[in-house]
Amino acid sequence: MTLWGYLAGILWFAISPLVTAESGTVAEPVGRVELGASAAEADVTVACMYPMTGRPASYGRDSITGIRVALAELAQQPDAPRLRVIVDDSRSKASFAVRMAEDFIEADQADILCGMVSSGVGLAVSRVARERRIIMIGTDHASSRSVLEEGHRYYFRVSSDTWYSHAAGARYLKALQARTGWRKLAFLGPDYEYGRVAWRDLRQALDMLGVEYQVAGQYWPKLYEPDYTLYIQSLLESPPDILVTALWGGDFNAFIEQARTTGLFDQMPVANFDTGGNYDTLVALGENPPPGLILSARHHLNWPDTERNRRFVQAFYDLSGRYPSYSAQGAYAGILVIAKAVGMVGDVSNTDAMIATLEGLHIELPKDPEGFTSYIDADTHQIVQAQAIGRPVANDQYPPTRVMLGDWVVYEAELLKPSPELVQRRRGSRNP
């Protein structure tokens, strides 16, 4: 395959007219998509699972575009390995994704599994990877249990997890307490793997920093809950000094919209340290966001303000006509990490050499501030990256949003790494 043919194939998938008969509008993929090299010409087959339907579908949509951006970059590198990337709809269901992973391995001869948004889905597929001894690259799901309690030699993650986000959040809360004297903390999170582990990570991080606080309440709506009225009412009846939430995507947007008219934001700051600064939430905030929001995400369009980050954001926009969510940067990073490791090893079937190469792999990514390069921690297999926490400020540089995060507080990557003692405590006597 020629360089132009390879690149043209990527761009065809990115801009091909998937037109609906009824409306004539371009439709997003809702099923299997194949990108990059053909099965006959590929050096490696990567099989990814993302949601393409339901409330989290935008994460799958942006992940696919992030993959296309990465493939387009690789097509400009003559020595880059030729990747065949298959993407299909996980439906956000663990049992379905497990069957899909097995089919990818058997029917498509997949060399590497990747992706996943739901932490429950990610953990389930990670167990398949361990049993089948196939490398898995997690690009979005964030439960720290995936690299700690259930970490194993075949699993790697290339986006920040709940530990890194909430280790930064705990430091932010400690500094906020010194300024405001807050004491009562409430937590609102989805009642499944991700929310439960996020709450545990935050409490562990606060305790390690010696922050004294009272738990004013714990609230556990179901994932994709349509109505948060009862939780909002309970928070208003017994208001904490600060509310931390691990709601994400459409769930967090729905909570904000329903709480806007209740006075909740006038009574307590609301912090979301892992997903709250996602681009779709910033769009949903409109021109006048509620007061007191403290937000972060696993990638930001306007931080760090580096040429590397600006280039990624622009390339994504050029392909899709929209700006990326953090899931896009995770998928993009996953493809580049795979390509770099395969290029260094030379043979993707040499699993032991691939694992040894991924352990400690350094790679420049859009999330890296000047002077720092992301790397995969050899012990936990978790990518090590800085974290920035901010507040919404007026900014119309990335329409249609009218606000972006600013007033940044940045936490260095090495400061956020779990200590060896914490890793050992979380893993117990288990040998990963």
Topology at a glance:
Blueprint: H1 3-15, E1 33-36, E2 44-50, H2 57-75, E3 83-89, H3 94-107, E4 112-115, H4 119-132, E5 135-138, E6 155-157, H5 162-180, E7 184-188, H6 193-208, E8 214-219, H7 229-237, E9 242-245, H8 250-259, H9 264-267, E10 270-272, H10 279-285, E11 293-295, H11 307-320, H12 326-345, H13 351-358, E12 362-363, E13 374-376, E14 383-384, E15 387-394, E16 403-411, H14 413-416, H15 420-427
Parallel strand pairs: 2-3, 2-4, 4-5, 5-6, 7-8, 7-9, 9-10, 10-11
Antiparallel strand pairs: 1-3, 12-13, 13-14, 15-16
If you had to describe this structure to a student in words, what would you say it looks like?
By secondary structure, the chain is an alpha/beta fold. The protein is 41% helix and 17% strand. The protein has 15 helices and 16 strands. The two termini are 40 Å apart.
Structural class: alpha/beta
The poorly predicted ranges are 1-27
Instruction: Please tell me how large the radius of gyration is.
Output: 21 Å
Beta strands, count:
16
Mean pLDDT: 92
In DSSP terms, counting alpha (H) and pi (I) runs of 4 or more, how many helices?
15
- Overall geometry comes to globular
Beta-strand percentage range: 15-25%
Give descriptors for this structure.
432 residues; alpha/beta; six-stranded mixed sheet; five-stranded parallel sheet; 15 helices; 17% strand; globular
